[in-house]
Amino acid sequence: MTADRGTARKWWTLIAMALSGGLIMLDETVVGIALPTLRNDLNMSQTSAHWVISIYMLVFACCAAAGGRLGDIVGFRKLLIIGAALFALGSLACGLASDGVMLIAARAVQGLGAAAIFPMTVAMIMVVFPKDQRGIAIGTLAAISTVFLALGPIVGGYLSEVVSWRWIFWINVPVVVAATAIVVVAFPRQPSRDARERFDTSGFVTLTAGLTLLVFSIMQGPTVGWISGLILGCFAGGVFLLIGFILIEARKNAPLIDVSLFRLKAFSAANLIIFTGQYSKITIVVFGALYFQDKLGMQPIVAGATLLLAVVGFPFLSTAVGRMADNTGARRLVLNGQMVATAAMFLIALTAQSEGLKWMVAGLVLWGLGMPFVYAPVLREMANAVPVQKQGQVGGIGVSFRLLGGAVATAISSSILSVSGNFQLVFFSTAILMLVALLFGFMGLTRDAPQPVADRSLQDQNNDVI
């Protein structure tokens, strides 16, 4: 009976994590397709509208590492509940927004909640599943949660065209309530953490301030002027603070981000690939949506249906890829997937200027076939490479790099579009960055999966909890 109860708990926990992670993925794709509609409704400029995407991902990226670290300190269950409350409140406020400023502020609250939730999705699965089941568990997590990702463009197009763009935020509330209720019932309480553990406030402040100044300078450069004192000062200040962050973290006993992990070539290469994966996804779902609606004159629901082709394969491939990663390791899967996705982005870029829809659709489909072979295997390798007590932090680092890729993509692509008005340059710059990540992957990813730095498996160390 105890074994049956433990088995039921781990699968219910997986369902709750898939709903939570999927909801956050939905918010990444559903907003992009509705951006032109809400931009017109709230009388926002193009740059201000892009902040609706960027502020969410920037706050998410800055706070995800903090979320992972707080999870290690206060416990995964408690932090997820707090994050769910923030996410629900932010979603309600987004739907009630009367102007762009209120919407951007509410999106920041959403990002804060997401930063608490998302690192816990992988970390909590690491607690309840044994090592030999983690690949399929993460693959299943990706499959279920990416159903939300796949539905994002069509749901966003339908709601913004037929109902109201406000409902793209309000639909979050019942889902997050349901997922939280499952966690309260199914996920076991964890032992009390060491009261001497402290949160790295100085690291968090320097990281947040540095990234904010850097993204602000890139986003606002075309509007304010690249050589203006404000933009140059923000850019220099951002770089200075990020260098300071690295120096601070290297000397901390309990850092926000353990920078020593980046001495592992495979870990560094994996994070760069995750960064470019999210960068390319935002290029497709946000700037692809703008291209289809502003350039080709598509209605939101038609643009959403077209973009659906880029993500519809994720749910069907993710579980199988997770199982393959358990058997073969990550390197071959990741590199082949990255190669296909990079070629697809070049194809999209080549056909954007001619406005040839047929070949662009082919590029979207190819990208959607390649990326599932990247995400789950890389996450598995990252999770297995570190000690048990840093699982939450590694989840935070992975999420930070993924969301930072989205924030930087929004900033750089927005700047390119503001200066040139050329969507082809947006797609080409993304393809080149993906190619760079592919080369680093060839040099950095190892053929054999890294082994956990721990005497016992994560499952063994949590038997008393389960």
Treating each run of at least 4 consecutive H or I residues as one helix, how many helices? 18
Oligomer: single chain
Number of domains: 2
Q: Provide the low-confidence segments as ranges.
A: 448-466
**CATH architecture call of the largest domain:** Up-down Bundle
The SSE string, one letter per element, is: HHHHHHHHHHHHHHHHHH
Cα gyration radius (Å) = 21 Å
CATH H-level superfamily of the largest domain:
MFS general substrate transporter like domains
Mean pLDDT: 80
Number of beta strands = 0
Helix content: over 70%
Query: Which structural class is indicated by helix and strand composition?
Result: mainly alpha
Largest sheet: none
Strand content: under 5%
Membrane topology: Multi-pass membrane protein
GO molecular function, one term: transmembrane transporter activity
Protein name: Multidrug resistance protein stp
InterPro entries: MFS, MFS_dom, MFS_trans_sf
Tell me what the structure shows:
By secondary structure, the protein is mainly alpha-helical. It folds into 2 domains: 2-186 and 256-460, Growth Hormone, Chain: A, CATH 1.20.1250; 200-255. It has helices at residues 2-41, 46-74, 76-96, 100-128, 134-163, 167-170, 172-186, 201-224, 229-251, 265-295, 300-311, 314-328, 331-352, 357-370, 372-384, 391-420, 423-444, 458-461.
